[in-house]
Write a structure and sequence with these properties.
Length: 76
């Protein structure tokens, strides 16, 4: 069941998938990211602390379902 807040957020931001972070400093965490042209984005910038972030990229070019696995690239 989708709550009202989640439905509103989805309507404001568009379709999303779950990005599963498989390694790096955020290993094991998942975040919601917006779909780009119907697909998971190739790279994502994930905030770590105030002012710092990590860049992750798709672990495999072929992804299916409502989540995608991302691998760590570098600190930003």
């Amino acid at each position: 069941m989708i709550d009202d807040e989640a439905a509103t957020r989805s309507a404001e931001t568009g379709p999303q998938i779950t990005a599963r972070l498989c390694d790096g400093p955020l290993e094991g965490q998942s975040i919601a990211v917006e779909v780009v042209e119907g697909r998971p984005p190739k790279t994502i910038l994930v905030p770590v602390d105030a002012g710092s972030s990590c860049r992750y990229c798709l672990a495999d070019w072929v992804q299916a379902g409502s989540s995608a696995v991302y691998t760590f690239l570098y600190d930003v």
